[in-house]
Here is the input.
Amino acid sequence: MPRISLKMVGASGQGINSIGTIIAKGLKRSGYCVFGYREYPSQIKGGHASYQLDVSNEHICSTETTVNVLVALNHHGLELNMDEVKQGGIVLHVTPGWQFPEQHRKLIAERSLRVIYFPVDDILNRLGATAILSNVLLTGFVWSMLDQDIDTLKSLVGGRFAKKKALLELNMRCIDEGYSFVDPEQETISVPLPPPDEGFASHLLITGSQAMGLGAVHAGVRLCAGYPMTPSSPLLSFIAELENKTHMVIKQAEDEITAAQIVSGAMYMGTRALTATSGVGFDLMSETLSLNAMIENPTVFVLAQRPGPATGLPTWTAQGGLLQAANCSAGEFTRCVISVSNSQDAFDLMPVAFNLAERYQISVIVLTDKQIAEALYTQQPYDLEKADIDRGRLVVEPEKLKALKSSDRFNPHAEGGVSLRWLPGGDAATYCAQADEHDSIGAVNESGVNTKLQMEKRLRKFHGLKAGLPAPDLSIGGCNAKTADWMDVGDEIELLAIGWGSTGDVFRDVMCSDELRERKIAYLHYTYLWPLRTQELQRLAKRSKRIVLVEQNYQGQLGMLIRMECGLDIPDKILKYDGRPFFRDELLASVMERCATTAENEGNCSSFDYAGTSS
Here is the structure.
């Protein structure tokens, strides 16, 4: 798969995101698939930050540890990121008089790197422009290195300043200067891109948070309440930006407890409402989660994961929230945990989450992480023509409301544990909704007989929910080859990988690598994480030479749930917990290593049993 990587590095607030975003939009318009990845410290200004773009004429959804072009906006980028430049790569910097240390001079020679000094201050002085336009100058030069049409870039930048003629003219002059710049010590430098695929020009360029926000609108969400906490904040901010278009009620609460209570009250009154948080913010919401279980009030919570414990790494990524989502709060009750993995299902799963919540009158926890929330995806336009809205056993017809009895609300004998539900204020019988154990009308009842009936009612939902959830997705063979009925796959699998969340796209990109196109490798991706379906996994395990768990946490939390549910232990794990996502090349190396080991041990491979160990 052809792939070119560019990385802009500098201090937070220096404008690296502006350069990356403009180039990404321009390349997408030119017919390329772009994937953007950001790193930045948990401080508003200063520190070391980066914005990397991976570009291809094929679909990609991952990033690499090495780059073809490094654009350093300060000397710290030269000090910290030189090792990441590939053989024959380009180092573009703006630091006058910079002297590379001995180890970097050696690196430049060994890798045949081309170093370009771009005199941004001199050009700005000549143009009479302020420092803020340095990013436009650099963007123009990078655009010329990529051999892209200057008119595309001018059209993109010009659209932002169409009503400000003087500023528009200055931006166009900066683009011309950057585009025409030639380093006197270098020949004309070009970074050849593969031929474009015009199909990408009509795609969206969107972050995971924006996709999830659009999905929430599509699901019929009319209220959003939250308290800012990275990496959930971009979702809340985006939904707030749409307020005038959607007329949604937006509330920044004083804390996470209040946000959860606001959303729960809105859902109780029949309005689809959403809240989002991260880490310890979700801890604060967990009491409300338990309350909703007792009163059987449908709710949806977005849990955006970052490394913990405590404050941890606020601006980095992890998959450490799975067990938290599946087990938090007091008592035993039915809940559903699902995880988005990219910009497509970040949109698709929001209506699903609300439909499940209302169908079973439970809380649904939607997991995302910093990588998904802030990554930039090249996304096919969404289907906005259809919206499947399932409000479950909600009674709204006037005649049916009049026929209701108070005891219908928490009827312990309701089919599947899901009783009739109706909204306060209508012409219907009343009932009590409160946190104590109660009888069918909601009145406090602590008798053993009633407690047993109500507990069994609430937990019967679990079995119906589990039976109705989709199977995990299976990718097999070469590049994203999927089978509709994957249980019919009869070939022996050389390596079966299991993962969830943002890991999925990276592993599928790995499977597209030339090194693995012909290998019998399969990847089983879990979107629905609790309740957990394991029967498909168990069947695949019996015909797999090797099974490996791929997660971004220390414990292998999905593996723990798998072992708890079916006894299958997966001792071979590829785990990452340094706050960074899986990079395509590093994950490929780990998979290749395991494939080589499996080949060496052909005929003496481990077989997996269900006693908790491999033999």
Summary: The two ends are 38 Å apart (CA to CA).
